[in-house]
Amino acid sequence: MSSERIEALLQRALEELHAATTQDALTEWHARYLGRRGDVTALLRQLGTLPPEERPAFGRAANALKEELQRAYEQREREIRELELAARIASEAVDVTLPGRVPPIGTLHPVTQMIREVTDIFAHLGFQVVEGPEVEYGYYAFDALNIPPEHPARDVWDTIFIESDQKEIVLRPHTSPMQIRVMQRRQPPIRVVVPGRCYRYEAVDATHEWHFHQIEGLAVDEHITMADLKGTLAEFARQLFGRERRVRFRCDFFPFVEPGVDFAIDCMFCRGEGCRVCGNSGWIEILGAGMVHPQVLRNVGYDPERYSGWAFGMGVERLVMLKYGVPDIRYFYQGDLRFLQQFDRIPV
User: Fold this and answer.
1) Is 157 a known active-site residue?
2) Helix axes of 23-33 and 3-19: crossing angle, nearest 10 degrees
3) Choosing from 36, 96, 156, 157, which is the catalytic residue?
4) pLDDT in the model for residue 174
5) Which residue out of 76, 200, 213, 293 is catalytically annotated?
6) Catalytic site includes residue 257
7) What is d(CA 337, CA 107) in angstroms, rounded to the nearest whole number?
8) Does the CA dihedral 125-128-134-139 come out positive or negative?
9) Helix (H, G, I), strand (E, B), or coil: what is residue 333?
10) Do 188 and 222 meet the contact criterion of CB atoms below 8 Å apart?
């Protein structure tokens, strides 16, 4: 093979090497020219077929070709590696002057939102927010509230009892024990609302949970009357459900109030005409209330001849269900973000 053909092979190989822009193309080039079956290897194998006098010059030219192509290959490999690295760095570059990604922000649970909304309403009406223990003595949960030991509410099927060798201890079934605790610590006038979690041993369904939230209200002073109770609850309902709401009071029984009433508003879904939500009655019961029983006042050392008061208790989950049309109380505690995100109004 003449030197012209070796030079032509060199030029062709260098042109193809320069055209290679990726590691895969570079690997193919190496196999084509410098591999075991490549053109340069085939060239060297021809050495034995040449006349003896031509072999030295041909060998030097072929080895020089191989060394030059090997150097060119290594140089091009470094260049391609640097180009690929620069491209990757450019694609992953971060402009630190751009605003960062805003992380998702959690929100308050709908029950917590309702507690804040209700307590804010009563705060503007002059009530203070207080809280109490969820594990309570039976005295505060029952006895002081005019619920004697034989009362059905003390049955194990309703109340969750905690074993104790000395005193009756329960998970509070309502927030009413704080009526007693507040009155024991203070002298009238008293205006408080008490939000908190309650527990009852009962079956769970669309309208009942074994744990739930209540808000208790208590007002005690001289010359407190039922008219004060009616006016306060009517204003509360209209602030929460709309100024157009009509209200209704009907007689009911609770051991710690006398007289007792249930408080209802006209159905906001059918406007009092009757629908599935209100049971075709046109009214939706919101809470139970009444004038504090004289015996309850005596139990805390108040003179019922001088002081009178009223109290109420409402279920928070029920308020959310009524206001926003939630059909099942269990939705609040299943942790389904699709449900909870519908109430994303107040950031944490």
Assistant:
1) yes
2) 170
3) 157
4) 94
5) 200
6) yes
7) 11
8) negative
9) helix
10) yes
List the catalytic residue out of 141, 192, 292, 311: 311
110-343 domain in CATH 3.30.930.10?
A: yes
Contact 346, 113 (CB under 8 A): yes
Question: Quick check: 122 and 195 in contact, CB under 8 A?
Answer: no
Q: Does 213 participate in catalysis according to the annotation?
A: no
- Domain ranges (residues) in the chain: 3-91, 110-343
In the chain, % of residues over pLDDT 90? 46
- Catalytic-role residue among 118, 144, 257, 264: 257
Q: Is 72 annotated in the active site?
A: no
List, for residues 136-160, the tens digit of each pLDDT value.
999 999 999 999 888 877 776 688 8
For residues 322-348, give the mean pLDDT.
82
Would you tell me how many other CB atoms lie within 10 Å of the CB of residue 275?
14
Active site residue 184: no
CA atoms within 13 A on the CB side of 83: 10
Query: Which token pair is 205?
Result: 């369904």
113 classed as catalytic:
no
Q: For residue 130, count CB atoms less than 10 angstroms from its CB and return exposed for 0-12, middle for 13-18, buried for 19 or more.
A: middle
Report CA 125 to chain centroid distance, whole Å.
Answer: 31
Given a cut of 60, whether residue 346 has pLDDT beyond it is: no
Tell me the residue ranges of DSSP E strands in the chain: 128-129, 135-137, 160-162, 169-171, 190-199, 211-222, 247-252, 257-266, 283-292, 307-315
From the candidates 154, 214, 261, 264, which is the catalytic residue?
214
- Return the SS3 of 159: coil
Query: What is the C-alpha separation between 180 and 143, in angstroms, rounded?
Result: 10
pLDDT for the residue numbered 348: 44
Q: Between the CA of residue 194 and those of 161, 250, 324, what are the distances in Å?
A: 22, 24, 23
The DSSP string of 71-129 is HHHHHHHHHHHHHHHHHHHHHT---TTSPPPPPP--B--HHHHHHHHHHHHHHHTTPEE
The mean pLDDT of 93-100, rounded to a whole number, is 83
| Catalytic annotation, pick one of 174, 213, 293, 318 | 174
